[in-house]
Structures are given as structure tokens and as C-alpha cells.
Amino acid sequence: MHFHESVLIDTVDGFHCKTYSNHHPEGKIIVKPKYIPSDIIKGEGLKRRFIFSRCMTRLNLFAKKEKVNDNINQLRKRFPDYFLDTGSTWFFVIPKDKIMKVHDPRQGLKELLEVPRKDLDNYLLAVVDLIELLTKSGVKKQDLGITHSTLMGNYTPGISDIDMIIFGKENGWKILDFLKTATHPKLKWKTRGEWIRYYQEHRTAESGHFTEEEYADHMLKKFYEGTFDGNVFTLFTVEEPDEMWNDFDAESYEPQGTAEVEGTVTDDHDSIVRPACYKIEGNVIGKDIKVKQVVTYSLPFMHQARKGDRIKACGLLEKVTPKDGDQYHRLTIGYFDAYTTDRREKEYLKVT
Amino acid sequence: MHFYESSIITTKDGLYCQSYANEHPINAILVKPKYIPTDIIHSDAFQYRFISGKRMNRLNLWADRKKLTSYIKAFKEQYPEYVFHSDMHQGRRLFFQVPLDRIERIYFPKTGLTDMMKMPPGQMDPHLKTCHEFVGFLLNSGLELKDLGITYSTLMGHYSSKKSDINIVVYGKENYWKLMEFLKQAQHQKLRWKTEEEWLDYHKRRNRFKVFSEKDFLFLKQRIRSEGFFDDTLFVIFAVEKEDEIRSKWGSEKFVDQGIAKIRATVADNHDSTVRPGRYKVKEYKVLEGGKTGGKAVDDLTGVVFYSRDYSMLAEPGELIEARGILEKVEPKKGKPYHRLVVGYFDSYTNDRHEYIKVIL
């Protein structure tokens, strides 16, 4: 079943979630809970925010692993309906009957663009001007949306990111290509030096697999994150229903353990959506197991490699059994369970 | 039915409303629509705001009267279920309501503040830190956290640091007066009151205060302690009535329109002037205009009632006020009829009744 990724959903239990895939099991939506009412989980070690009259805990999968485990266990015990066990892994899900409100990114942007400029603050003016710039790529306003705090209106000017959605992979590629050469007085990209500084200040489990220079090399090739009028912006491309590279219910997955894979990217078209997919010709390092796909739910590894690139990656090796067709192997990075196990530090995807 | 004033209600039709009284009919909550989606009706007479993914008009009762009148007419046509027909007023007064089955969510100021105060201070943004510290300071008055709430943009989460006000709700009139007494003397390095210049600028920008000379306006506003700055953020403190403080239950009285009247009266009691609707009990009054029933001058006027917070605590007992509004004969189900003057029903904003209350100094 299709449902756009990066869409905000409030649930009847007070959770604020973001959709975390474009492909979903029937009757449920795969999400990442962003904020959970603080009276529901203790949330030790996690940040709190006061949002829409409630003290909410921001679920951070990069917090200390024991804490992540503890928080997830608390949630699972009290809200088992929000978990889907697939045999291979598990997902946070919202059963459809638990949806209270879906915040429509497209409609939100449409409404924003109708507000007279005189009634917009500097942050929203930057959003409107950035949209104007993006449409110079040839992508229509109707194919763009806004999400997260930009949509909800609880942004902090000068601090909050501008989060935008591009509907459709063709449109996503069009904009990313356009931004390679686009110029605008308010548009800035981090320089190599800035990316290196960023690496030094924001070392995460993922970046640990890269040297400073390697990290900067990868980031300089990406154009989904920059600054506009001093505000960080992030572009999320989402799949339209007729573009889905996968259907959740069309295959089953059997975990084969953590593995390291190397290969050559033969198709990167689906690498800019969540989950992203790189078609590769490759195999498990040191073993005679052919691998056809590297899949990632993790944003830092999206748009990471291009067609023809030689890559190395570590994640969960899965045997895929399609309802129609032959079995094959794929490597998946960024399943939720990775954040609660040693795999979190092991997973990566890099161009060699 | 009791329901606290100054709570925020979002509706299934996308309206953001503020409860506008403490006593309500059985099946609805009387409100003022604060933000109204612009997809069905809109007006350039109002400011546009982008809230929760929607372009909204902020209803401003002081906007150009012609445009306001035409907007309200369109509102009544497009949102008929949000207009309350009061039999108690023979349908002559305009009230807005949220029918109970149209409520999407209620934001309660008290629970909002309680939750906000649970936030670890290190994780608050500057606006919330200021709110947190300000509330902590107010608690020195002897009030407890359960006596306070927070409302409007801070409660809803669409505030902007250093721009948005802090709007504090105090539960109970007694508590409110206690807090006002405390604020008369209290000191804090981050607390300051509006300067003459700031009040005069406020006076200049709001036509509705033109009934006061600058000198009188300054005198009246500078003695009020419900509005000031804390850490350079404007704060406004409101009172809401507890259920046991309500003067009369909805439906227990009928209000018969006796036309426009202008009176001068001595304030006997301003205790109820802190809430919405507020009231000054009066004595020794003189009718300057209208005010006759059956050819006879009204001789049983007991008070002046108002809906606008501009008149809260404006006058003190013993002071002379002048007021213009709708004279109503109040017919209680039990007890003797009497008269009152009402200033600021919603329909007063769309005509030239020129309603006001001023203190004659």
C-alpha cells in the first residue's frame, strides 16, 4: 500500500509521528514516532519539547542504546498496536484506526503561498523564496510540499530547519540536478572545510566509518541539504504511487545476519527516497553470496552513491522471497532494530 | 454550563476559537473565533497567518467596520452552526459558539502550564524559559500552580521568541485580586511596567481609547498591574471564574433590549470587573441618554456589564464612570426584574452604537 513518506500524523494516543516509508503493509502506516507525551515514557536521557500544550519527549534513536531499548520496551508494553513484527525485523506503525490527523504537506504549501508577503515572518519568507527558486528547475509548485515544524507552524526562526517535500522521483532528480549549478544570493552550500568541521562536531555512529576527507567527499556531492537565508533546508523526495520500487506485501524477508557487501551500483534511481534502493552487482565480502540490492532507511546513506560507483556497505543481509520470481539477497541498513543492537555502530554505506 | 474562559478550542472545520465566557448554554461553548480558515471565506481587512498548515484570517473586531460587517455576514452564511441564537436575548444579540460535536481538541491553559512546568529548564527555548521563570515569580504571591494557566500562542506552540506575549490565566477572582495586590509591591530584576511612552504609543495606535485624554489614559493604565514586561516579553494576566463564583447560570435570566443608553454612575464594586463578561456594580447613577421604559426613567440599574478586557479593573469603587451600551431589562426566573447596561456584544462592532466605558476623573 502506498502512503507518502515524511508526512506528519497525530494519533489518538497523542503521538506525533512521521511516515517513514512510501511502502506500507495493508491497514498500517510505517512511521517514526517523533514526539511522545512525556507522561507515557520516562524518556531518560531524551530531549523534551513543549508542543501543542503538552510536554513531549523526542524519541532519539541515537541516544544511549540501553536508553533506546528501555524507551522502546516501555512503548511496546503499553502500546503493542504500534509495533509490527515481520519475522525479519520490526517497524513502528500506526494502525489506521489510531490516526487522528494527517497534516497534508501539499495543501500546507498551497495555503502558505496564498498568505500575503506582508503577513509572513522572515522564516516563512525564506520558505516562499526557496520554493520560488526550486520551481526554476521546471518542477511545479503543486509537486512540492512542506513538513515538520515548517508545516506545523511551531518553528523557531533562525534555529528550525526548513523541511520540504518533493513529490515524485523524477521531480526529485530534476531539482537535485538543478541545484548542482543553481545560484541565488540566499542559497549557500557547506564548503569542504565546513563539512569537515561539521564531521568533527557531529560524529555519529554512521560517520565513524569515514575519514574527514571521505565524509566531505560524500557530502559535497549531495544537494538535499543546504542553507537559504541562513536557515538550514532539507529536501525529502517521496515516491508517487506509480513509482514504487517495492511493495511491502509482495515479498518476504529472512534475516541472514550482519554482513559486509561490496559491489558496483547499476541503478541509483531509487536512492533518493525512503527506503532507498541501490541496485548493485556485488557480493558478500569473503563469501560466494551474490547481492542484488542495498536498501537503506537511514537518511545519511540516501543519495550516497551514483550509478557506476564502487561501494562498500554493512547492514542486515536478507534473503528475499518474492511472491512472483526468484529468491535473491539484499543488504538493508537502518531498520529500527539496528538502533537497539551492535549493528548501529557497524552499519554504513560508502563509495570506495 | 461552566467552562473556563480563555481556553482554546480547535474545531473539525479548522477554526481556532477562544472560549469567551465562563458560563455557557448546555449544548455549545460560547467563543470568539480567533483564526478562521480562508478557503471558504476570507477578508483582506484582517491579518493572514499561517498556522498548522493553513492560511488563516485573524478575526479583528476593530478592523474596518464595513469590511467586518460584510465578513460577519458571510461567516453567518458559511458557518451557520457556529452562530448561537440566544432565546434569552430574543435572538437580537450576536454570539459565536462551537457546537460540542464540532470540537476537535480543547487546549486547557491549566494542564498546558502544568505540563510546561515539567519541562527540564535546560531544554526550554528562550520564550518558555521566560514563561517558566515568570510563573515561578508569580507563585511568590502565595498562589499555587493549580491556580494558574497559560494560553494563546504559548499554549498552542506557535509562539515566536521575543515577539509573542505571555498570556497567563488565573483561576478564580479571589486569586486574581490576590495576585494583583502582590504585583503592586513585588520586585524582580526582570519585571518592569510599561513606560509612559509605551502606554501613549498604545493609546495612539488604538482608536478605541480615544474616549480618554492621554493624561487620563495614563493614570488609569499605570495603576493596573495585569500587563507589563518580564525579561522584555510582554505579559498579560487574565482572570477566569470558578464555577462557584458564577453570578448567574445560563438560562436563569432573560434579557430584554431597551435600546441604547448612556449613563454616568458611581462604581459600587469592581470585584467582577476582572473576568469576561466583566461587571461594575453601580449606585447613584444618572441617565444621560435613552434609558426610559414606558416613558419612565429606569430606576433600578444595578450594573454595567462588558465583554472587552479593555475595561477590566479600569474603575475603582467610588469612581464615576460614563458608559454607553445596550440597556437591558433583566428578568430572572426567580426574583425581581432589574436593569443593566451591556457594552461590547459582538454585534456592537458591526454598527455605530459607539459603545464605551470611561472613568470621569
Task: For the structure shown, list the relevant keywords.
heterodimer; A: 352 residues; alpha+beta; OB fold (Dihydrolipoamide Acetyltransferase, E2P); eight-stranded antiparallel sheet; five-stranded mixed sheet; 8 helices; 22% helix; 34% strand; globular; B: 361 residues; 3 domains; 21 strands
How does this structure look, described?
The complex is a heterodimer of chains A (352) and B (361). Chain A is of the alpha+beta class and 352 residues long. Chain A folds into three domains: 8-103, no CATH class; 105-238, no CATH class; 249-351, OB fold (Dihydrolipoamide Acetyltransferase, E2P) (Beta Barrel). Helix content of chain A is 22%, strand content 34%. Chain A has eight helices and 19 strands. Chain A has helices at 65-78, 105-113, 122-135, 148-152, 169-181, 192-201, 212-220, 343-346, and strands spanning 8-11, 16-19, 28-37, 48-51, 54-58, 83-85, 90-95, 99-103, 144-147, 162-167, 187-188, 225-228, 231-238, 251-267, 276-284, 290-296, 310-322, 328-333, 348-351. In chain A, the strands form three sheets. In chain A, strands 1, 2, 3, 4, 5, 6, 7 and 8 form an eight-stranded antiparallel beta sheet that branches. Chain A has a five-stranded mixed beta sheet with strand order 9-10-13-12-11. In chain A, helix 6 (192-201) crosses helix 7. In chain A, 41% of the residues are buried. Chain B has 361 residues and is α+β, with helices and mostly antiparallel strands. Chain B has three domains: 8-106, no CATH class; 109-240, no CATH class; 252-360, OB fold (Dihydrolipoamide Acetyltransferase, E2P), CATH 2.40.50. In chain B, 20% of the residues lie in helices and 35% in strands. Chain B is built from seven helices and 21 strands. In chain B, the strands form four sheets. In chain B, strands 1, 2, 3, 4, 5, 6, 7 and 8 form an eight-stranded antiparallel beta sheet that branches. In chain B, helix 6 packs across helix 7 (214-222). The radius of gyration of chain B is 20 Å and the shape is globular. Classes of the chains: A alpha+beta (352), B alpha+beta (361). The A-B interface holds A 38, 47-55, 103-105, 107-108, 111-112, 114-116, 119-121, 124, 146, 151-154, 156-157, 159 and B 38-39, 47-55, 107-108, 111-112, 115-116, 118-120, 123-125, 128, 155-158, 160-161.
